[in-house]
Amino acid sequence: MLTKFARILPNRRMACHVSVSALLAISALPALAKVADNEAVLAAPDGFEECKLQLQEKAIAAGVSAKTAQEVMTGVKHINRVIELDRRQPEFTTTFADYLNRRVNDDRVSKGRVLIKEHSELLARVTEETGVPAPYLVAFWGLETNFGSYFGKMSVPDSLTTLACDPRRSTFFTEQLIAALRIIDEGAIPVEQMEGSWAGAMGHVQFMPTVFLKHAVDADGDGRRDLWNSLPDAMMSAGKFLQSMNWDGDYRWGREVLLPKNFDYSLADGRRLELSKWGELGITDAFGKPLAQEEITAALIVPAGHRGPAFLAYHNFKVIMGWNRSEFYAIAVGHLADRIAGAGMLQNPPPEDTPALSRDTVLELQAALNERGYDAGKPDGITGPATRSAIRKYQHAEGLIADGFPGQELLDRLGVSI
User: Which residues pair with 11 in a beta bridge?
Assistant: First the structure.
């Protein structure tokens, strides 16, 4: 069973119980305390009450009952902390080593292996109906809420109304608020129990309200879709969501690989090649063995530069990113699932001495590249595709390994301070 999961062979019949021990995702989700009611009221900006009434009218027009809309919106409070979190841009980027090590650790792996046995019957049912193997379901659960130990402490209606009345992303959060009111309206959960993250993600698997409405299911047959108190509902809903994004039950997410010396890292630009082509380029599995001869395509991902691990990502990697658009998150889900299923640690763990770059440092880096004729685009403090392309061209010209990664040697050569 585990052999099938560890290889790139069909794993549709993979069992839901394992006999060995073990994103945005988290060692512990941010411990956001509830904002005191009086603080929320005092912090409410001018026009908030009028905005609440407008949102109430929009909800009723969208099909929410007048009773639910009025009762919920009357009690909604502005939470200034939500606006702070929405505005906050991290001063420093998170290194891949820090991100992965915080999320895929021995404690979480061990707990995941215990839970996959404890809930084997439920997980087998979800796998049978959706094609998503149990280790992935448990991995999502572990990353989203540390296996249900922390759902968030913010009132979802309060958070979403606060964000809907803020001009930055009003349209999106208005849609989420109306969806949350519809969830209350259908009786899924009482308003006083609807708590989640500051941005409105809810329950064991942290669904946003619109995702809840579309993909949440009543798997325990009690007549309610309850992602807070019903693990069957939560796991089946997660499986259904992944299935809706065309999860491929025959193959895994991807795998760690080894790259040959003098490898052309420009190939790690998102392009998808047949496995046979990657093999012809000298790529092997993490143990130096030839890649499987399967007619599938994969993209090469090198999240920590040439000193760190490399991965070939298959179709299911894209599905995971449909849940969370972070490559780091998708790798963490896949690796945690592998570990829960019995696999070991990465053969080439990410280096822990990689510098964490502040936005100011990235701005300085982009400016330095542009000044030298390597187009990094308009400096924005984000290491995106244009910046990585400029880095790669500069590295090539300077005789460095052209992996497009802003490591210490590159920064030193460009005179960029950390």
Answer: none
Both structure tokens of 259 = 């790259």
Q: Over the stretch 364-398, which tens digit does the pLDDT of each residue have?
A: 999 999 999 999 999 999 998 899 999 999 999 99
Set out the domains of the chain in order of their start, with CATH numbers. 1-248 (1.10.8.350), 254-340 (1.10.530.10), 359-414 (no CATH)
Give the C-alpha separation, 118 to 343, whole Å. Answer: 19
In 3D, which of 220, 224, 222 has the Cα closest to residue 183? 224
**Helix/strand/coil (H, E, C) string of 345-363?**
CCCCCCCCCCCCCEHHHHH
Residue 338 DSSP label: H
- Alpha carbons 157 and 195: distance in angstroms, whole number: 8
Contact present, 135 and 46 (Cβ < 8 Å): no
Cα–Cα distance between 257 and 288 in angstroms, integer? 8
What pTM was estimated for this model as a whole? 0.88
Residue whose tokens read 């404890």: 118
d(CA 72, CA 63): 15
In 90-168, the DSSP E strands lie at 154-155
